[in-house]
Amino acid sequence: MASSSAQLALRPGVRMKVGVVCPYDLLAPGGVQQLCIELADLIREGGDDCVVVGPGRLDSKTPEGAVPVGATIGVRANDSVAPVAITPKAWRRMKNALDGVDVVHIHEPLVPLAGWAALSVDKPKVLTFHADAPDWVGVAYKTMPWLGRAIGDSVLTAVSPSAARSIPDSWGVLRIIPNAINVSAFNIDVERISKRIAFLGRDEPRKGLDVALEAFTQVRDVHPDAELIVIGAERAGTTPPGVSYKGFVIGSEKARLLASSSVYLAPNTGGESFGIVLAEAMAAGCAVVASDLEAFRAVVGSEARLVPVGNVAGFASEIAELLADPEACRRLGNAGRARVQRFDWSHVFDEYRSAYEDAIAGG
């Protein structure tokens, strides 16, 4: 984890409080939730205070320092289901939870209702856009001048160029601050199984589990001893030979499963703005085989095998080739591990800290 040499305060000795607003259920699996929670931990480690506010109910698993604002409903968007809160009570709780903060960091500020409520708070703000929105969204934003007024002089950030694409220039200068992980948490001492392939994601169309299962069937024709572990998604009914469902896992167990795998398969079909799971797999030393998406290219560079979206035979061929050549698989995994250092929190956290300071100075 990164360490902060100074508090966020602009006045020496004054401790700052940051309100990190998560748009989605704090207890549901997801890259945005994970980033919000890890960011809050780093803010506290740096000597400042932080509260994470987002949808959800208070539970024994609620992260430390988090304030859930109410029950969620699933809203379908971007080939996924977003667990958001949309009640008036959630709006009031969001505003109350942010009452004592010095700066508000809103992730996905235009997602109802968390983002809208947080935008209405009269505090300095940092806004982070995560989604790779369809082209029509950017066109729509330009026809809504009231959105620009609501955003005001907030500091604008996006996790990647694809996430920034829909944001109008008229809203202000936008900084690219990538998602981040704790790289060392995935560099663990565990036996790597030479024919093990890992898939991590929810069972939603854009995550590509159907493509993964079809490709794995073809891989088994060449490598009968290959196995596919599915992390996150679970399906009822007959499990295909060689496939095992691990369910929802986090922390050290997720790191262990990735580090025990030789190949990581990411056959996502679209709608991705970054690819945090690719970064995690690279940190774990997996050779990555992924869909050729703009957001994924920004993460993996040339240190992965990229396949056209939905090309089952292409995925199967690349995986089978890597399983047949353990040395090539190892080299690709090591190259990915070297590249992913740029997405470690030790580099990224300071960029967010600077954004907070700029928001406060501008407020």
Describe the model.
The chain has 363 residues and is an alpha/beta fold. It has two domains: 17-177, Rossmann fold (3-Layer(aba) Sandwich), CATH 3.40.50; 183-342, Rossmann fold. The chain is 37% helix and 21% strand. It contains 13 helices and 15 strands. The strands form three sheets. Strands 3-2-1-6-7-8-9 form a seven-stranded parallel beta sheet, sandwiched between helices. Helix 7 crosses helix 11. The longest helix is centred in the last third of the chain and has 18 residues, at 345-362. The two termini are 29 Å apart.
| Number of DSSP-assigned strands | 15
Oligomer: single chain
How are strands sequenced across the largest beta sheet? 3-2-1-6-7-8-9
Q: Domains counted in the coordinates: how many?
A: 2
Provide the helix percentage.
25-40%
- By CATH, the topology of the largest domain is Rossmann fold
Low-confidence stretches: 1-6
Global morphology: elongated
Let me know the CATH homologous superfamily of the largest domain: Glycogen Phosphorylase B
What series of H and E elements makes up the topology? Answer: EHEEEEHEHEHHEHEEHEEHEHEHEHHH
CA radius of gyration is: 21 Å
- Please outline the major beta sheet: 7 strands, parallel
Distance between the termini: 29 Å
Mean pLDDT metric? 92
CATH architecture of the largest domain: 3-Layer(aba) Sandwich
How much beta, percentage-wise? Answer: 15-25%
- CATH class value of the largest domain: Alpha Beta
Query: Treating each run of at least 4 consecutive H or I residues as one helix, how many helices?
Result: 13
Structural class: alpha/beta
